[in-house]
Amino acid sequence: MPPVPESPTVSVVICSYTMERWDLLVNVIESVQAQTYPAQQILVVVDHNPDLYKRLMETVRDAVIVENSGPQGLSGARNTGVGLATSELVAFLDDDAEAAPDWLEHLVTFYDDPDVLAVGGRAEPVWEAGRPAHFAEELDWIVGCSHRGLPRVASEVRNVIGANMSFRRDVLLQVGGFNVALGRQGSVPLGCEETEICIRSTIGTPGTRVVYEPAAVVHHFVPAARGTLRYMLARSWSEGISKAQVSQLVGQKRTLGAERRYVRRVLPRAVLSGLGEWVFERNLGGLRKAGAVVAVLAFTTAGYVRGRQLVHAEAEVSAPLRAQWREA
């Protein structure tokens, strides 16, 4: 009989930047410590906040507490964690995303296949004040959660969700980690760093796969302020700009294929569903929901157009400098 492969080891990286999420962060750490598939290592990376680092060092046990040694921001903090990880796999959790007890157990299952580079799971929103009537489930990506329209069973996808993802550590090292020019910096709602690194990883090794496993669940806390239309539109604008940055790096076709399918198939159903609630149930929230979907699409598109303009302007400015450098 062939030897049974050993189960892979996992390092879990939790990035945090603010004392305001202290209680949430403690719950996240405890949820990892209680996994049915134990993590070999728990790394809590503090993003340039000495007071938070000191409090964690004084309070938390059975976890490695470190400070971000790279540029400020989520990508830099994640790269710090990857550099210190000692396991075959590296899983990432946000500091406000509590893992279900069998989270790691579901993630590691797919790594029996050597062609699987990354596995992500489902992020379910936990609304501080309840889901707003205008906030369709199709838009849950705005708050870093899985949206309606994603696969309901384990499937190959383009990219994982940042709040709930894992990678082979050697893959992360091979591609140079997360791009520090992308991703959230403090409260600035930029993103797409997980999209970019998944695309970059599969480009480097053709035939490999990224898997989404909805059974691997984390519960992602959503403060009331992120349910407002103002936040939805600001996040949508930033998403458009981020997608423009990624398309410049890895190509428009690779970056926007999933988005085109989402716009063609998922959003029309959300609009029709909201209008149906308004017409047949006399529910004004349905009309607001349909309007919010249209507004989010418009702001995301506008952000993308603006992002492309910024990318092209930067290229035009830097081109003469690159020419001078080559001549020198």
Characterise this structure.
- It holds the Pfam family Glycos_transf_2.
- Keywords: Glycosyltransferase, Transferase.
- Residues 11-172 form the Glycosyltransferase 2-like domain.
- The termini are far apart.
- The chain is of the alpha/beta class.
- Strand 1 (10-16), helix 1 and strand 2 (41-46) form a beta-alpha-beta unit.
- Strands 1, 2, 3, 4, 5, 6, 7, 8 and 9 form a nine-stranded mixed β-sheet that branches.
- Helix content is 47%, strand content 18%.
- The protein contains nine helices and nine strands.
Largest sheet: 9 strands, mixed
Q: How much of the polypeptide forms β-strand, as a percent range?
A: 15-25%
Distance between the termini: 64 Å
Secondary structural class: alpha/beta
The gyration radius over C-alpha positions equals 20 Å
How many runs of DSSP E, i.e. beta strands?
A: 9
Low-pLDDT parts are: 317-328
Morphology = globular
Oligomer: single chain
Into which percent range does the helicity of residues fall?
40-55%
Mean pLDDT, to the nearest integer, reads: 89
* Tally of helical runs: 9
* Series of secondary-structure elements, N-terminal to C-terminal: EHEHEHEEHEEEHHEHHH
Keywords: Glycosyltransferase, Transferase
Domain Glycosyltransferase 2-like: 11-172
Family: Belongs to the glycosyltransferase 2 family.
InterPro entries: Glyco_trans_2-like (IPR001173), Nucleotide-diphossugar_trans (IPR029044)
